[in-house]
């Protein structure tokens, strides 16, 4: 009976503890959800306060930041940091703004939050824009637009278009400014984005004003003033200032003064030094037009004060931003070192794993060898009988192997020739495309080079066809099929393939126009390989901005092709090695860090000998090299 009572007692205690823990966990989760909602509310309130109570907005965010850390919620902390970056930006404190945007960006990237990454990048772009680095800002906003396109949130693109419009406006690119502002307005109308509409009207008014369309500018700015209930002090300050400067240009000076004074008042309310500097400058011009020189001087003095303040702020903040960028580079370097060490650790583990696998394989192989040795006695008699058959067939097999080795060697040489001759023209095409991709050439220059690229591709295709036809004829061995060939057209065909590479290194190929050259007797495929290698080498070892000269010399028995480059040259010892050696010669790097295989001159020598032609090399190290190739005349 006592046992049953004790069991019942313990059961009640267990259920009581379970209920207490469950209730406590539920209460904790409920409290955390309430805390998160409170932090989001504080963020929204700070954004509303910034235009009217800057200090209050920062105080709210400071509290929200501490609470987000207590909750250990990195995504919530990122939202607070982003909001702080935005508020600092509104007030022109760009160094603090950039710091908070970058901290938020780091947290968003760690959580793979694309939308957060986009808006942090947008904040970074705004700071860069504010210190007049507009080309860099445009690139950042383009990244933002790509992310919004990726996550399929077109309603978020409007602000990025507005920001692009501001940079285009500062760069005096009014056509592109109008283009992106119109895109922003389309999105704003579709999703009823009031703030974006206000930005559109104000910036479009400024574009119109800069194009001397003052009535049109008035209409744009008046749209913001009509919606004064929804517009904040900053938007109204910009709109009233825009109306004031338009009226001044239209000769309505009294109206201009009225709107300028309102603009200054709103700028003071929003505590925006940038707006105060702009608005006091407009007011000074208005007083000057009224011949009220005392008031004009007073407004100008205020303007100078705000301008100096802006200059000092921008200068200090540019220095701070440079320090931030240096710190970011240092952090990147440290991160790269950590990544490198991690890779080294992974490589070490892989090597260890490889050693273990090799050890296992070795054990297996040793076991198989032992097993095979046990079977040798069984197979020995069978092997003795088969050896007699093998010996009879050995001579036949040996002859076939020799023929096969010879055929493989010839095929290897053919593949080496084809790959060597294709390398340079394809490298030239690759370099041209790389220049375009890295924006080293302008769109106008690329249009010009595009036709040359097409010619290069066509010429390369012709060369491939010729090489394939020739290599097909050589499959049974390196054969010589001499025919009568016009040397000059063959030279021009090869030069066409290397034009893009020459342009890339700013090298001019000067070809002597001969009056008449007798045909030469040579294998066409061999001639193509010879010309490709010599012209490619001349281009490879010539200095940028120099010339290559191609001339002809005709005597009783030979037609001589002369190729002169202005490059690194060849030492006497190297020339002797080239003349005497029949093997592949180690190739050095070209003037543009081009690599080579060392096969080129070896093939040139072999093919010249097969065609009873001669090679002569003269060189002045550091100044250039002259190659003379003499072919038999018709």
TrEMBL record:
SMART domains: HATPase_c (SM00387), TPR (SM00028). It catalyses: ATP + protein L-histidine = ADP + protein N-phospho-L-histidine. It comes from the Bacteria. It comes from Leeuwenhoekiella aestuarii. GO terms for molecular function: phosphorelay sensor kinase activity. SUPFAM superfamilies: ATPase domain of HSP90 chaperone/DNA topoisomerase II/histidine kinase, Homodimeric domain of signal transducing histidine kinase, TPR-like. TPR repeats lie at residues 78-111, 158-191. Residues 417-634 form the Histidine kinase domain. Keywords: Kinase, Membrane, Phosphoprotein, Signal, TPR repeat, Transferase, Transmembrane, Transmembrane helix. The chain crosses the membrane at residues 350-370. CDD domains: HATPase, HisKA. It is an enzyme of class 2 (transferase). PROSITE patterns: HIS_KIN (PS50109), TPR (PS50005). Residues 1-27 form the signal peptide. Its EC number is 2.7.13.3. This is histidine kinase.
